């Protein structure tokens, strides 16, 4: 597995939020029709969507698909920790939710710690 797979991990982690116009990736005009068809934390925040889009990416490259799936699932896992939660098994209305308030200081601390941990893992694997 090469380091470029990290690109697909990061791409997928951002891609999950294309259903909201306020996200960095979602405010692109290309994704507006998708935002009209879905609501935030709907289908795109489900295991079904993670598998579907990862298989599409994997049809081009197996490692890219694996990286995409890891990034997608990581995003879903972290969203499951928030009070807003996600419908992980969409279209079923069973919501998985946690205790972290989105946009709060605790979310920032968790994000920072996970970011540092990921950076350490990547640096170790590329030989730093």
Descriptive account of the structure:
With 128 residues, the chain is mainly alpha-helical. It has one domain (5-98). The protein is 54% helix and 0% strand. The chain has helices spanning 5-15, 32-37, 47-58, 62-80, 105-125. Helix 1 (5-15) crosses helix 4 (62-80) and helix 3 runs antiparallel to helix 4. It is globular, with a radius of gyration of 15 Å. The mean pLDDT is 79.
Q: In percent, how helical is the residue content?
A: 40-55%
**What can be said about the biggest beta sheet?**
none
Report the order of strands and helices.
HHHHH
Mean pLDDT: 79
Number of strands: 0
Shape: globular
Radius of gyration based on Cα positions = 15 Å
Q: Termini distance? A: 17 Å
Please mark out the parts with pLDDT under 50 across 5 or more consecutive residues, or reply none.
Answer: none
% residues in beta strands: under 5%
Structural class: mainly alpha
What is the number of domains? 1
Output the number of helix runs. Answer: 5
Keywords for this structure?
single chain; 128 residues; mainly alpha; 0% strand; globular
Sequence-ordered SSE layout with sheet pairings:
Blueprint: H1 5-15, H2 32-37, H3 47-58, H4 62-80, H5 105-125
Helix pairs in contact: 1-4, 3-4
Give a short synopsis of this structure.
By secondary structure, this protein is mostly helical.
């Amino acid at each position: 597995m090469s380091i470029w797979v990290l690109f697909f991990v990061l791409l997928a982690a951002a891609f999950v939020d294309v259903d909201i116009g306020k996200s960095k990736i979602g405010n692109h005009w290309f994704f507006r029709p998708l935002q009209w068809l879905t609501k935030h934390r709907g289908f795109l925040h489900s295991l079904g969507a993670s598998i579907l889009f990862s298989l599409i990416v994997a049809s081009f490259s197996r490692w890219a698909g694996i990286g995409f799936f890891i990034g997608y699932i990581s995003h879903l896992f972290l969203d499951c920790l928030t009070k807003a939660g996600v419908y992980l098994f969409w279209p079923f209305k069973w919501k998985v939710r946690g205790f972290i308030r989105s946009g709060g200081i605790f979310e920032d601390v968790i994000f920072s710690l996970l970011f540092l941990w990921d950076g350490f893992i990547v640096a170790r694997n590329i030989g730093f």
